[in-house]
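Just wondering, can you check both lines?
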Amino acid sequence: MATVAIMPLAAAMTTTNPTPIATASGLLALLSEPDPTLVKHALTKLLGVVDTLWHEVAEVLPDLEAIAEGGTVGGGGGGGGEDDDDDDVAMAAAGPYDESTRRTAAALASRVFFHLEEPRQALRLALDSGDDHFDVLSPAAGDEAYVERLVNAAIGEYVARKRKEFDGGETVGGDEEENNEEEEEEELDMAKLQEVVHLMFRRCYRDGSYGHALGVAFEARECDKVEEILAELSSSSDNDANAVVDTLGRALRSAHDLIPSKAFRGRAMTSIAGALEEVFSGDSASSSARRNAACALVLCRQLLGDADAVGDIVVRLIDDGAACDPGGPSADEDSALLGLQLCFDVVDSGDRHFVAGVASRLPGRTSSPPSSTSSAVVEGSAAEATGAVEVDAGGNASPPGAAANERSVEVVEPRGGSALAHEHFDNARKVLTGGFTSELSLSFLYKNSNSDGLVMANLKRALEERSMSRNSVLHNCAVTAHGYLNWGTTNDDFLRDNLDWMKKAGNWAKFSATASMGVIHAGHTTEAMTLLEPYLPPSAPTDDPNAAHPTVSSTGGYAEGGSLYALGLIHGSHAGSSSAKRLEASAFLRQHLRNSHANEVISHGAALGVGLTSFGSADLDVVNELKELLYTDSAVAGEAASMAMGMVLVGSGAGNAASSGQNEELAEIVAELRNYSRETHHEKIIRGIAMCLALVNFGQEENADASIEEMRSDRDPIIRYGAMYGLALAYCGTGSNKAIRILLHTAVSDVSDDVRMASVIGLALVLHKTPERVPELVRLLLESFNPHVRYASCMAVGIAMAGTGDAKSVALLEPMLTDMADHVRQGALLGTAMIYMQQSDTCNHRKIKTFREKLASLIADKHQTTLTKMGAILSTGLLDVGGRNCALSLGSRNGFTKMTSAAGLVLWLQHWHWYPLMHMLSLAVTPTCTIGLNKDFKYPKKFEILCLSKPSAYAYPKKLEEKKEEKKKRVETVALSTTAKSQARLARKRAKEEAESEEGVDEGAVMDVDKNEEESKIGEEGKEEEKDKSENMDVEGDNNGGDAKTGATKPNRKKREPEPTSFRISNPARITTAQANVCAFDLDQRYRPIRPEAKPYGVIMLTDSTPDEDEEDLGAVKTPAQEDEADPPEPFEWTPPGHPDLLESGSSASKAAGTGESNADAAEAETTSE
């Protein structure tokens, strides 16, 4: 018998079995063996097959956890007495399993939990398994999914803890959830979590995934890690400068869009700005990388509110452009154009105070020899050069914000002081504070207006036919709608041609009608005083400073007050209007404000005008003058004064805890307003103060939480009403979940209808950057039993989806057009009109045409209520606002929330309580013009933009056609056949009798008559048969493609040619925000955009690729007054009457005339003799 060799146990354990096992029961049985070596062997084997047999291993998870924790299998679970327990404790203390065995058990249990889809428990055990089993940097083959899942779980847990630590331990949810969260957090070691996350950072550095690392650092609110990642990004030799700038740009957008905390977002952006500054200032980066870094850096500094830094960047770019050789194109020359492009982008944000701060950094012309290394500290001179001056109560000029915070502005002389540099700086100053952007919009709207004159003619006719023009509300709405239709076009022909109809307005309707002139001429600052001169109240002569102001009557003054309001609308509607003109108008309005306290109507108009012209300036003198008017305790004037104070202090955050140290006087004024709202009994004043506090908190986010919470808890519903608008403005465009939660809670819980209405409308402001979320949020609110909530839901959908033509949103509002409440129908009409702004006739399967017809029918229907007709009339103006070249937009080209648009929209919504505020829509409307300019600010007419869409998709709507009155034709009487036969029989009888009575009459005459009648009948029947035959033959001929008789081929009908799928847009042109997404630049042209990666929207600076060639057809930007000027006459010489030269020429002419006559007579005589 052969001897069987016994293999040692150790050798048996180390021998690998290539055959996979079908079950793990044998290995699982080894776990209960007392020998630690067998247990370790079983764990090692199980770890290799756990991915396939994990369902069997899951049965012994408690044993695996016990081994991982250093205990024994089934430890502590036996039925023995105290002696057994003591033995187990002693065995655990002795450590029956070594560290390697415990880590293997932890790794095995972790993988089982991973397959059970419990990543948190798997992570807990993986952290104890060590780097051998959980390698974050270099996971083993086949372990990638396991490692990635646990790393994600670790990052999520780490981020949650860090965010809670950053927020001060505040959590959202019930007490039970908080306790469960704390218990789970105790299971994970924070040090080990942090180690895993830091290893993941190292892996990102190695792989070049800096964006992922920045995302984790942003989520965890770790500024130190953000700076570390940016330092690694900048110092890495493998990264190209363009790649670095691209990563920083994406990080900037992520920080702005995804970080809800304003404090941390500011610190993160500061770090990003530092990294961008290194690229922009470095010499190793390419010119394209430096330009991209400059664009991102300006955006970052603007988000941080650092106007001085933005001004310095613009100065450096223009200096680089002026230092190049002006003879040809170069990267440096493009830098100057880029600086001008950034100036246009800064103005487009709508923050006038910030724009003035940027302009103050631009150097001015000096008479002394410039020095490249010297710098001058100028107090006021730079501000005067830019036009950014303010006027105090006495009419004296002072630097911007001098009353609030005096500071010296350091102005750096351009390098070399070249004429080219000064020319570029003058152009930049012209853009920022000279009103050039306003002139661009005004010129475009004037020359490209597509306003339909028949719209107002039909509206006027409909109101007059039903005697509805006697209704002052509808008449006022019609005048307002005319202002919307012609916003900024300066086209007031309808008003001038219908003065008698305009004179029907009385009292406050007259005030509003006069103010509508400001909407029509918005931005026309050069002719504002001339246009409004017939309506303005008398003022003291300007040439005599000691002259007293004329006494103001306490009655009347509606036209005068409306003209002051109109003056403010003209200068305040455009954020880029001239600072000098705006301040001049502000001084004029403040003069009337101080001297018109006796007349509340004039005071009302003057206060609104002052607020518009001093919008966002935070001027303490202006605020004090308005406060004096408020304390007169006049309801009408006090409401206007408080709202004007809100316009002056908009976005300042005065009175908040975060800004308490900036200006104590403004904070005291805000505190006084809060106290006065509790003391006064006028609801109009309380509402004005509530809206003032809301405007002050614009863009403040969490800094305004304390102030808004105080307003929310007030017993007065009007103050709570202001709190909802304050919350919406504070988080405008942020998409904050906290703000949305508060607004939705208030919309269904507050006892005041007005407060609930304001909270629903506030959703559109908070979510205006993600508008598609609004219809889904308010879908259920549209079915609310409360009509105010339904009205607000319609308005919210309209504001959010304005200008999109979204079919789903229109379908959502369609049932509301037949709501039982008339004001809900009004809201549905206004909301639908906003959605259909700037849409072509093909929009929404041509349903827009049906909506236009519905508006006309509602206006003419005598059974509709006044509020419904009011909505239809205003919707008519909203559809074609600004000559069909404007849209309601809260965002700028670079993604900023425009301060003027947001504040103007909120003030316009107050027309629910006060109709003259309908004109505040002028602030929220934005021209959708795209214009390309060269370095001389002229537009090349041959520059074109390619639109990859059908022309009909973005075409202007077809204008109405005047119906021609058709003359009524006289209808001939139809004779019956029986009547004809009887008449013929009588005629034959009569003829026969006459023939018999008369002698010499031929007997066959009667027969001839009968024969002729029969022949005529036969002839008529034959003609009809021939006609039928010819028609049949024509049909056959058409089928065969020719004539059946002659065989001649008839020309086929002209087939409609298919519409092209793309077309080219000339310069300048209207390009809507939706159209810009399907437009692209053609870079093969002579003129190319300085930023080809940007959307073709707004003002575009163009670089000339062939400057040596002759200039192409260029157009100059002209104001409407310059467009209407006649051409100068041809040169001629003029001689005054009685001049000697004139007498001599006259005598010589008479002699020549006499000689000519005598010669003519002689010639005639000679001819006669011949």
User: Anything to note?
Assistant: DSSP finds 52 helices and 15 strands in the chain.
